[in-house]
Design goal:
The complex is a heterodimer of chains A (about 475) and B (about 300). By secondary structure, chain A is of the alpha+beta class. In chain A, about 40% of the residues lie in helices and about 20% in strands. In chain A, the strands form four sheets. In chain A, strands 7, 8, 9, 11 and 14 form a five-stranded antiparallel beta sheet that branches. A five-stranded antiparallel beta sheet of chain A has the order 12-13-10-15-16, with no helix packed on it. In chain A, helix 6 crosses helix 8. Chain A is elongated and about 110 Å long. In chain B, helix 2 packs across helix 9, helix 4 packs across helix 9 and helix 6 packs across helix 8. Chain B is mainly α. Chain B is built from ten helices and six strands. Chain B has three domains: about 45 residues, no CATH class; about 100 residues, Orthogonal Bundle (Cytochrome Bc1 Complex, Chain D, domain 2), CATH 1.10.760; about 80 residues, Orthogonal Bundle (Cytochrome Bc1 Complex, Chain D, domain 2), CATH 1.10.760. The radius of gyration of chain B is 35 Å and the shape is elongated. The longest helix of chain B is centred in the N-terminal third of the chain and has 25 residues. Classes of the chains: A alpha+beta (about 475), B mainly alpha (about 300). At the A-B interface, strand 1, strand 8, strand 11, strand 12 and strand 13 of A face strand 3, helix 1, helix 4, helix 9 and strand 6 of B. Strand 1 of chain A pairs parallel with strand 3 of chain B, so a sheet runs across the interface.
């Protein structure tokens, strides 16, 4: 009952499904699959959605002045809280590192196992799966939905459609709602949002995320992966003939053909052309045509095929995770070799290990204190009344802890210097600066050298800040060029 | 359409564009994409109605929302003034010493003071406050009219020779131009001032000038030439010179008796702004009498007081 459009003939009027201005979406009615991959995906869906919806409500005790939400991005105060860590805006490079690690991890798994991310973990896949579940709940499985699509609108059909869209909107609203809780204290915002007192930004993001979830998972579905997502376009660069992908083993399946019970299996392939792999496919493609741009490697066709193979008493795994190279080798009658260790997997692993090690090391060496020195450049130096030369520095002291910390600031490297700091009391050769919890403080340092100590136009000096037994150091210079008469 | 080329493999028409033998297929757009295009057109039409959009012969269409960046700016500036008023009130209440010692108040005063300084003071005193010939350096330890917080605040509030009744006031006579002294006496005085600042000078001239200095200059600059902040008379014995320390500059100063003018800022800046810029100047320079930390320790404070007393 399939109309074959011969696209190679050329000329003639355009065929019916190609409109000169746009291409109509071909409706897809994926059938529910049963099996181990379907079960794995249900489990992953519950885990991932549970994480997304639940994380903002997880509490984590912190000292006074900080929110007790385990995961929170606090834009107003410039903090990112993640369980026992809190990051300041100047530590944003840890995010950069995390993104690089994520990208390399994606490259590695893709080179090894194909589009693992697309098939199991991508939000588009997970939410589409959930929306399809709701669709089946209201409108039944593939055959019922296809039948309904051809029938005129009835009251019952209308009720089902309205119910489906209502639940979709509810899920979308919950999704948009969960998003804003990551940026505010969740219980407070919940109370505000319900009372209509939350900020415009909160409602706006709630509305935008609700709309995009509803559109992308409800109506756009596979078109997001095919047309919008850039990842399928360049994931081919990570995949080679040895990557394990969801593959139709044509060496075993061909030649395909209908099979009646009792017929012999000799001289033919195991594929009985039942098209179960096609009807369960959420992308609406035929896996038997090989690796395709549209295929998200969701592995549901494996479940569908295994079910049929069990029924016709043939071994399962006609469709399975396999490499193009292995299938081709078996087709030639030889024993395939699987190569997980290849130049590209080695490269991605090493890169991942290096970036990961740098990240972990950087995080281990992170101190709660910072010292930055900015030397005054205008004027470069000042001559005082007794002929001595003064340079000024602005020292920024950062205290990331939740208690007051006193820094002992001194300047070393120059004999005979005099250190002054307006607003701070000197103690011996240091000045003491107390920095409030989770704050930074600018301290002015005026350093004066007598004429007799000027040995060079530019003399190096070290500014030290001692706190809690740690000594932070910053290098700078003392400039007196042309100042000597 | 009929004579457009079709790609043999896909059966899709080509656009007719070709690069190195590669032809571009004219695949149709997805329908949702086309809808987005139509939505954009609709949004544009709505935008024309809501927002300023079309030029007319003597103006433009305002749109029913009456959106205007000029009006928005005026409103934002008003909000900003109100906000500054609130924070300024804190500065007005606190004493200058409190502002300087409290980390938060100091940080706020430094930020506000920098803006005030940049807008009002920098044209003469320089962006960094380093001054120039005839304009006082606000970064060193020399203060003609005093370097304490209160002194600086007073100078800024009423100005110097500004015409304000409470202004800092003094006038050095033009000894040469007004023929109060003979040219030879001015030359001798120049040598005398050079000698005061511990440099080699002609002993004969210095000896001749000593009685002239005592009669004409000591009233303001003091018998030993160390100056007097009360009348803004500079210390002539140190290394700092407002109009230059070479013989020619010193001679010119005695001849013309130049004195700068600084406006009174009390009618132009708010009390809070004056306080902020006072703290800004004091913190940047250390003012006078600021204790120091040295490796010698305790001796430093006394030493520093000595240096600041030597203001000219």
């Amino acid at each position: 009952m399939t109309t074959v459009i011969d696209r190679t003939s050329g000329g003639g009027p355009p065929s019916e499904d190609i409109h000169p201005l746009y291409q109509k979406r071909k409706a897809i009615y994926p059938k529910l699959a049963h099996g181990r991959f379907r079960n794995l995906k249900w489990g992953l869906m519950i885990l991932l959605l549970g994480l997304y919806y639940g994380l903002p409500w997880l509490r984590w005790p912190r000292p006074a002045g900080a929110p007790d939400q385990a995961v929170m991005i606090d834009f107003a105060h410039g903090r990112f809280y993640f369980f026992m860590f809190d990051l300041w805006p100047d530590e944003v490079y840890y995010f950069t590192g995390l993104l690089i690690v994520a990208a390399l991890g994606l490259f590695l798994t893709t080179a090894w196992l194909g589009r693992l991310w697309c098939g199991y973990a991508c939000p588009q896949t997970v939410w589409t799966d959930l929306f399809l579940y709701v669709e089946r709940l209201f409108e039944g499985d593939r055959t019922q939905r296809m039948r309904a699509a051809t029938q005129p609108m009835t009251a019952q059909k209308a009720v089902r459609k309205v119910g489906k869209h209502a639940v979709w909107l509810l899920i979308a609203a919950a999704t948009g709602g969960a998003w804003i809780f990551y940026f505010n204290d969740a219980p407070t915002l919940w109370a505000q949002a319900v009372a209509g007192e939350a900020s415009v930004a909160a409602y706006l993001f709630f509305a935008v995320l609700t709309f995009t979830t509803y559109m992308l998972a409800g109506t756009m579905r596979e078109q997001v992966c095919t047309y919008m997502c850039p990842w399928p376009r360049f994931q081919g660069a990570m995949i080679d003939r040895h990557s394990l992908q969801v593959t139709y083993r044509y060496d075993r399946g061909e030649p395909r053909g209908a099979h009646r019970k009792g017929d012999p299996w000799t001289g033919r392939g195991d594929c009985i052309d039942c098209k179960q792999c096609v009807v369960v496919c959420p992308m609406g493609i035929d896996i038997r045509q090989g690796a395709q741009l549209e295929c998200i490697n969701c592995a549901l066709c494996i479940d569908a095929c295994d079910e049929i193979m069990t029924k016709v008493d043939r071994p399962t795994g006609l469709i399975g995770y396999d490499s193009d190279e292995a299938v081709a080798t078996r087709a030639k009658g030889e024993t395939p070799r699987y190569r997980v260790i290849r130049p590209r997997t080695i490269f991605y692993s090493v890169a991942l290990a290096v970036v990961g090690a740098v990240m972990i090391l950087g995080f281990q060496l992170r101190t709660p204190y910072q010292l930055h020195v900015a030397r005054d450049r205008n004027p470069l130096f000042v001559r005082l009344s007794d002929g001595s030369i003064r340079n000024s520095y602005t020292v920024k002291l950062v205290n990331r802890l939740y208690v007051d910390k006193t820094f002992k600031v001194r300047v070393g490297g120059l004999p005979g210097l005099r250190l002054q700091s307006p607003g701070l009391k000197p103690v011996a050769d240091t000045v003491l600066a107390t920095v409030a919890p989770g704050a930074s403080r600018d301290v002015r340092l005026l350093v004066t050298l007598p004429q007799t100590s000027l040995s060079d136009a530019m003399q190096p000096l070290v500014i030290e800040a001692a706190v809690d037994g740690q000594v932070l150091q910053a290098r700078s210079v003392f400039i007196s060029e042309g100042a000597k008469p | 359409m009929a004579d457009r080329e079709r790609d043999a493999h896909s059966g899709v028409e080509t656009t007719g564009h070709e690069w190195d033998g590669i032809k571009e297929l004219d695949n149709p757009l997805p329908r949702w994409w086309l809808f987005l295009f139509y939505i954009c057109i609709a949004v544009a039409a709505v935008y024309w109605i809501l927002m300023p959009a079309w030029p007319t012969l003597n103006g433009y269409t305002h749109g029913i929302l009456n959106q205007s960046d000029r009006v928005n700016l005026a409103r934002d500036m008003k909000d900003l003034a109100a906000q500054r008023g609130r924070e300024g009130a804190i500065l007005e209440k606190a004493s200058l010493e409190q502002i300087e010692q409290d980390p938060n108040l100091q940080a706020y005063a430094m930020a506000a003071g920098q803006a005030v300084f940049g807008d009002n003071c920098a044209p003469c005193h320089g962006a960094g406050g380093g001054g120039g010939k005839g304009y006082a350096n606000l970064r060193d330890d020399v203060w003609l009219w005093g370097g304490s917080l209160a002194d600086i605040q007073r100078t800024i509030t009423y100005g110097v020779r500004s015409g304000d009744p409470d202004a800092r006031m003094s006038m050095m006579p033009s000894f040469g131009r007004d023929a109060l002294l003979k040219p030879q006496e001015v030359d001798d005085l120049t040598e005398y001032v050079v000698a005061l600042s511990h440099r080699q000078a002609n002993p004969a001239s210095v000896a001749r000038a000593a009685p002239v200095f005592a009669a004409q200059c000591a009233a303001c600059h003091g018998p030993d030439g160390k100056g007097q902040q009360l009348v803004g008379a500079p210390n002539l014995t140190d290394a700092d010179w407002l109009y230059g320390g070479d013989r020619r500059s010193i001679h010119d100063q005695i001849w013309f008796g130049r004195g700068g003018v600084m406006p009174a800022w009390r009618n132009r800046l708010s009390a809070a702004q004056i306080k902020a810029v006072t703290v800004y100047v004091h913190v940047n320079s250390g003012g006078s009498g600021l204790p120091a930390a040295t490796s010698a320790g305790a001796a430093a404070a006394a030493d520093n007081t000595l240096a600041s007393d030597a203001a000219k």
